[in-house]
């Protein structure tokens, strides 16, 4: 098994393009991937929360994963999220990801009937990863969505014995102290999953980040990372503050549907959301556009250099 992968830099949690009827629009994926690569992302994370993977059918998820892998054409790693309430379906998705040439898989645990112990969690993930024994695996830790709040240290202690393909954790949690206090932090590749905390995550030692807003503001975050590498922490804080302001504006005007709607404002329309997610209305998008212009987003959020 190839366990050499290590995710660094910005990993775009890619949107899944959809037509006006909320059916897949796979033809838009190549241009979306080209946009992301031009913006400087270092990897793609597909069919996660941002990609609405849990709202798609198994066949739709397979077609979408294959389209992203084909469009990336080996230029950047593609991580496919395969989590599912049915472990059998998750294993099928994992096997498919390996067959199409994905670079890694990731998964949340079942979240309706939740694992009730650390051993149960590891058992669930072991069943999923058995479908793709040759692919590195990132556990998707997002307790706010899954409700799985089991101790991370206990999980990793048992995982070292049972999950031989585990290489890291997509840490979508604001409690970064859990990572800084984790004795396994150096052994496994922790990647930040909260865009507003990229700077804080960098200070804890994380060097990769998976995020929604990297789809349209990667230049801003890449400047933030460059500042961190150069020891320009105050400038890094300024960029992080700008990112947080941008996110607040989007949430205030459109709510979470605004993130996908921003793509249309930068020429990469990804279409509507699929229910149960709502889709931003034209009036909301117009208000968001004006608010983003007012804070200067289209200047500092999109330009590649200062």
UniProtKB/TrEMBL annotation:
SUPFAM superfamilies: Aldolase. It comes from the Bacteria. It is found in: Cytoplasm. Pfam families: DHDPS. GO terms for molecular function: lyase activity. Keywords: Carbohydrate metabolism, Cytoplasm, Lyase, Schiff base. InterPro entries: Aldolase_TIM, DapA-like, Schiff_base-form_aldolases_CS. One of its GO terms (cellular component) is cytoplasm. This is N-acetylneuraminate lyase. The lineage of its organism: Bacteria, Bacillati, Cyanobacteriota, Cyanophyceae, Synechococcales. Pyruvate binds at residues 50, 210. It comes from Candidatus Synechococcus spongiarum 15L. The active site is at 140 (proton donor/acceptor), 170 (schiff-base intermediate with substrate). Belongs to the DapA family.
